[in-house]
Write a structure and sequence with these properties.
The complex is a heterodimer of chains A (550) and B (155). In chain A, 48% of the residues lie in helices and 6% in strands. Chain A is mainly alpha-helical and 550 residues long. Chain A has one domain: Alpha-Beta Barrel (TIM Barrel), CATH 3.20.20. The longest helix of chain A is centred in the middle third of the chain and has 23 residues. With 155 residues, chain B is an alpha/beta fold. In chain B, 45% of the residues are buried. At the A-B interface, helix 4 and helix 18 of A face helix 2 and helix 4 of B.
Chain lengths: 550, 155
């Protein structure tokens, strides 16, 4: 596989790696015998029919295309607003913003620990006013807004800002991560930042509150980047997330004490699963996931309700498969990943910028990422037929193999998923797998073009233009925050934070109701998360740097 | 399959090579960590396992460490080098603060930095005092070898 291999050796070269990306062995051909165990009506069925293996709608993309939804979050609310409008102008159909690291941590931009990190990996949003700036000029009721953040005060700020802009929150669509178990798994924050006891209540209460008041929102999204990017296989990615989903379904039913039915909450569950470059494995992964979700809802929760049993998934392309050497090659990788997602029948896609191993995407590479989806959608013809791979002996067999692997994992982790996440065992398992993967790359056993074969010299490397967060944007944001905190009605803020603290102490209260009220009354994200902590007897600031301001 | 080493890095000179041979038995002790709020740790976790497998003594502090804690641990553990991993564009400002803290505490061991770092920042980091920068995609063997060289040069 080395670059200097002679042409005669290359000319007679054979395909030599006979496993999928996740190391499932595959044979040279598949036939009728390989699908003998499957029953069409029970295991596969038509698109739009239980168990939805072939897609959640009968007409799939003819009925509605997937949402093209680039991730966005830069420097300041104003800079992010500008990039969102740019992407809308270029044909993006739905929106997706990610909060910066301080917002993920639940601290404000002016916190001493946030210094130097504001606006780097997402948008800094401290207050309802920041959120207003971010959504300025966007018709929220006519789109769907992903809020890629885990802490419910972030969602509350969005709802409060939307109200101020004249939207009715009952008409808003979108998805919110909200999963504090995945939060701990993904970000692996020390337990002191947000003890899970608090996180659990935040997650559950937010879902329950929104059932009535924000009924179109997907108020919990399993997945995000934690599992797959950290080293999970395709089957593990789905299986672990479904275990987590099962955990939350049970937690909500328990908190609802009989007032909430499975058919109320299951439709509010959305998923974010990565799509990798192994086209068949990935397409089959989504097919298997749909079958598994539907069967789990039926067998374990006793429902065949269509909206409950359909697995709806947003798919970011898998970032850990992008390579730094010959970085421009990633354009091709992303295109194949996107093809796999569409063949797999997903509902929403975020194509990454090819330059993400260098920095956040520039305007140009962001547009190219979007164009990758548009070319696939409008030129290749793959959107015409629902589940075009269905019926292939190989595809049905691999789908079933993945389904069985997923099911085995789900059985194994049935009662222990939360513990395995909280005690770090699950992350250690993924880390070991990531290391084993890397060893396969280093030994050359797993060819990666430009990395361990077909390499070029460092001098030949071109095509890097690193995006820089403009510092003046961050400065401007910090100035705005200071002004905002100085001029707001302090008494109103203090009062709503007091109520939030008391709500934390009183299990009967719905926490999110008070979070939303505090957001409306101009409390900041950091203040809200701090007050929630205080309600549980935890310190206002987990870093012990600042004091409760009221 | 042969892995192409990154050619921009100086391979150790002849004197270094001899010295290195003499010191092969000495176990390198390195402290790895992520500072700041970014938690993308796949790279640094893999590196800590790889260096351990290659005979080094690795103390991996994990993510979200404070600069002063990393420097204090380096002192207590008497390490030969410190390695920091970055992803979110925070490498310049945090490396500078790290070097300042190291200087104030009189920690003279080499600081190494790796991760998602634009090429145009490599020279900036070196000028600042970072001894070596490893960008993603570099083979683990090459990183391990270079760490040993840097430690020997500093000894």
């Amino acid at each position: 596989m080395e670059k200097t291999l002679k042409t005669d050796e290359r000319f007679f070269e054979k395909a030599s790696r006979h496993v999928t990306w996740s190391n499932i062995p595959v044979r040279e051909k598949y036939g009728p015998d390989d699908v003998k165990g499957l029953t069409y009506k029970e295991d596969i069925n038509d698109p739009g029919s239980f168990p939805y293996t072939r897609g959640i709608f009968p007409d799939m993309y003819r009925g509605r295309l997937w949402s093209m939804r680039e991730l966005c979050g830069y420097g300041s609310p104003a800079a992010t607003n500008q990039r969102l409008k740019y992407l809308i102008g270029e044909g993006e159909s739905a929106l997706n913003v990610i909060g910066d690291l301080p917002t993920q941590y639940g601290i404000d931009s002016d916190h001493p620990c946030a210094e130097g990190e504001v606006g780097l990996e997402g948008v800094p949003v401290d207050s309802v006013r920041d959120m207003e700036i971010m959504i300025e000029g966007i018709n929220l009721e006519a789109t769907s807004f992903n809020l890629s953040n885990y802490l419910s005060p972030f969602m509350a700020l969005y709802l409060a800002a939307a109200e101020r802009k004249g939207s009715e929150i009952s008409k808003l669509r979108g998805t919110f991560l909200n999963d504090t178990l995945v939060y701990i798994l993904t970000l692996y924050y020390p337990n002191t930042v947000l003890p899970f006891e608090i996180g659990r209540r935040m997650t559950v209460d937010t879902i329950i509150y929104c059932l009535e008041h924000v009924p179109r929102y997907y108020t919990i999204t399993q997945g995000s980047e934690g599992l797959r990017e950290s080293g999970a296989t395709a089957a593990q990615e789905i299986a672990f997330d479904f275990c987590i989903a099962r955990y939350w379904l049970n937690a909500i039913l328990e908190r609802g004490e009989g007032r909430i039915r499975i058919e109320d909450i299951a439709p509010r569950f959305g998923f974010t699963h990565r799509v990798g470059i192994d086209i068949f494995e990935e397409a089959c992964k989504f097919r298997a996931a749909r079958r598994l979700w539907a069967k789990m809802l039926k067998e374990e929760f006793g429902t065949t309700d269509r909206r409950s049993c359909t697995y709806k998934v947003h798919t970011p392309t898998l970032g850990s498969q992008l390579q730094r050497p010959q970085v421009i090659n990633n354009i091709v990788r992303i295109a194949y990943q996107t093809l796999a997602a569409v063949l797999g029948g997903v509902q929403s896609i975020h194509t990454m910028g090819y330059d993400e191993p260098v920095a956040l995407p520039t305007e140009e590479t962001h547009r190219l990422a979007l164009r990758t989806q548009q070319i696939l959608c409008y030129e290749t013809g793959v959107v015409n037929v629902a589940d075009p791979l269905g019926g292939s002996y190989y595809v049905e067999s691999l789908t079933d193999e993945l389904y069985k692997q997923m099911k085995t994992i789900m059985d194994e982790y049935k009662y222990t998923i939360a513990d395995q996440i909280l005690n770090g065992d699950l992350m250690r398992l993924l880390q070991n797998q990531a290391y084993e993967f890397q060893k396969e790359v280093e030994s050359g056993e797993r060819p990666i073009v430009g990395v361990n074969c077909f390499t070029i010299s460092e001098e030949e490397e071109t095509g890097e233009k690193a995006y820089r967060i403009p510092e003046q944007e961050v400065d401007e944001h910090l100035k705005n925050l200071k002004e905002f905190k100085r001029t707001r009605d302090q008494k109103r803020v203090a009062k709503s934070l007091e109520r939030l603290i008391r709500a934390g102490e009183d299990e009967k209260e719905n926490l999110f109701e008070h979070v939303l009220e505090a957001a409306r009354n101009e409390a900041t994200l950091g203040e809200m998360v701090g007050a929630i902590r205080m309600g549980y007897g935890a310190p206002y600031d987990p870093f012990d740097e600042i004091k409760y301001p009221f | 399959m042969q892995i192409n080493p990154f050619k921009e890095m100086k391979s150790c000179n002849e004197r270094g090579a001899v010295k290195m041979k003499e010191n092969l038995d000495k176990k390198v002790k390195i402290l790895l960590a992520k500072i700041g709020l970014d938690g993308h740790d796949r790279g640094v976790v893999i590196l800590s396992k790889a260096l351990t497998d290659r005979g080094m003594e690795v103390i991996y502090l994990g993510s979200y460490r404070k600069i002063k804690d990393v420097v204090n641990t380096a002192i207590q553990e008497d390490v030969d080098a410190i390695g920091l991993s970055f992803l979110g564009g925070e490498h310049l400002i945090l490396s500078e603060r790290m070097l300042k803290e190291m200087k104030e505490k009189g920690v003279n061991v080499p600081l190494l930095v790796g991760g998602v770092i634009p090429r145009e920042d490599l020279s900036k980091l070196r000028q600042m005092g970072v001894k070596e920068v490893f960008i993603s995609g570099m083979p683990l063997d090459r990183i391990a070898e270079r760490i040993k060289e840097v430690v020997l040069e500093a000894a």
